[in-house]
Amino acid sequence: MEGSETEPLTASSSCIQGNSHAKTAAAQELYPEEDDEDILLQAVVFVEDAIHYRSIHHRVDPWSLRLYRLYYSNWVQWGMYAAISVLLILAFFERPSSLSYTSDTQMLFRDRNGTNQTSQWEPPCGVTESIELVCLLIFLADFVVKTYLVGKEKFLKSPWLIAYVLILIVSLLDWMVTLGVLCVVQVPGTLRYRPVLRIRRFLRPFFLLQNSSLMKKTVNCIKRTLPEIFAVLVLQFLHVYFFTIVGMLLFSEPVGSTGPGKNSTWVPVDRATTGISDPNFHSLWNAFITLLVLLTTANNPDVTMTAYSHNRLYAVYFILFLAIGLYLLFNMMTAVIYNQFRGYLQSSLQGSFFRRRVAVRTAFEVLSQQNKELSTNSDNDSVRVSTIYHVIEKVSLPKGAERRITDKLGRDMFGTYNAAQFQAVFDLLDLDYEVHHRPPLPAFRHSWLQFLQKMIAHRYFEYLCCVVALSNILTVSILLTIEYDQLNATNSDLELLNFVFVVYYLVEQCLKFVLLGWRYYRIRKTYIFDALVTFGLVIVEIMTLVEYGSPFSELDRKDKVETVIELWDLIRITNILIMFRLLRVISLFKTMSLVLSTLLDLIKNMRAFAGILVVIYYIFAILGIEIFSGVTDYETFRTPNLTCGSYQQLNYWANNFNDFASALVVLWDVMVVNNWMVFLFAYKDALSTGWAQLFFIVWWLVSVVVYVNCFIALVLENFITKWDKSNAIKEEPEDEGRSRTLSFTEVRVESVHHLFRSGLTEPKEEEIMEEIRQHQHLEIKV
How many CB atoms neighbour CB 127 within 10 A? Predict the structure, then answer.
């Protein structure tokens, strides 16, 4: 970045805002011409397009621009997300409904045949359908407005908008077709209704995808990464297939007639002949599935024990299989996905960065054209800073960016900016760190207060506070181990210990607040966190004192007073809050602090990935309900002869696809891959076909192999970016005793665009101007 982008912000934004009216008045005296409101509106919209990486190719007449700003206003967009959320949440209430106290079909069967008559609550016919219709009509209105704003030509060139209208049409048609028969179709003798196939339920996640440009980019990048993933997957499956054949040859043999023209059957080798009998390798499909599960280590070492018990050398077979498949090929796949997905995503974000540059330059061209018309003495290509200030006043900017931009404009209020200077103003939107200036400490006249202030402000005092917090945790752990049965007494050691440490925490916070001052206290996030935890501890300790008296009393008053809350509950709350104070240690270690900030950034910036996770879960849950609903009910799937490790023996009756909520839980269980072979063989037996296992294998490939590895790629990129930037930025020199009064730099990753900003290249001037010339609705001489 240029020097003007990264210099410390020494001017106060409040001063700039306080003098804005005077500066604007002075600017009007120097430039008496008034800005055209329609031109300002165009510039405002283009600047907002730049902020949100939107395309400039939309209508620019005043009425359309006002509609455009209304459409992209926060409350309209939140309304759209609310409609999408309601439509997706309907799956929990629609038939089959998830509104029951349990999904365990064994308990539901016993309640139905016992004294407790319970069943799932089903909504009245037409209620969820009416809500769904309202949501679809909202999406239809959204499509009409969006198509009007971009124009017919852009609509025909947008695959997402074309898919939008097609899915709306299919959803409305499916709604009308299924409404008349949905509430009357019932399967007699089962625990639930089985509705007709509703195609629109599979299409609902599309509305979430199309409403987020970043989500659409991520989907496109994943799609472009699939060919490389497929190449490694083919190699992985060849590896599994090779070891499957070798395993069948090692651990089973064909028996029966073996002469010419005779058929033979592969069965496990009998112990009487060779000493090995492994049922996992009795068929090609079963052996392949067994090794595929072994690749995830879910059934290790169970499947190895039969062969390994016979001869220890057979362990070499399984060790080689896992070493090659798990530690080499899977890690190679992670590397391929990281490299390819990161590259495709960066290439896609380059397009977004280009749109931002185009939008900023278009705003400049609009304003400079006005400047040419109003002032003959002005430069050929320049914009008055006062005009830019008027634009910024009307634009919805993040608070931090608004402060930086207004501060910069305030220093040049009476000048003009050319295209490069205009762009430099909006480069402050991409600033990925911010310099915070610590306010000066309060001044005290008494020497003992000055000494105490210096001690509190010293960094060693923070180390002391962390040592005390660690000592508190250590003593609590020891007492919970030694005196757990006596902790409910009012004179227990743990209660006394809690009282002493809470008093210390309260004194510590009071000293920091008084001696360091509120202005400094509030900019330290760790201080605010400690204050909230300490406040909670003090409230709980006061309740303990009111209910049970002083912890120093030798009398046990627990049974002699009427209490509102049990003592043990108060002790538990106190020690849980004490555990939270341990988090303050993180700020003292750079690596731990960086990991925590990376996690917080992921929570803020991974909305696109979270949305894609919702999409794949939703589609597979609906598909699972349509395929497997009711097939593992206790009434039909129970068996008197239980096999060890089977679905029935493990009492997995609550893990089923009978409703949307339970389907999500099953998908999560399979995604974790622990014991997922139980579901593979259970649903194979329930439907009497091995093809049922393909559903779980495909889900494992999509969720674990593809999605999780793409997520790992972004986690690595986020961490590496923050680590490099934190090492590159040097803080100002600190004084040993007064280190708390100087400035500090905060590294921020506000979005995925910021994450890849350093790898993006500046577009050429010719490319930007050519894109502006192609605008259908804008007449600018460029």
Answer: 13
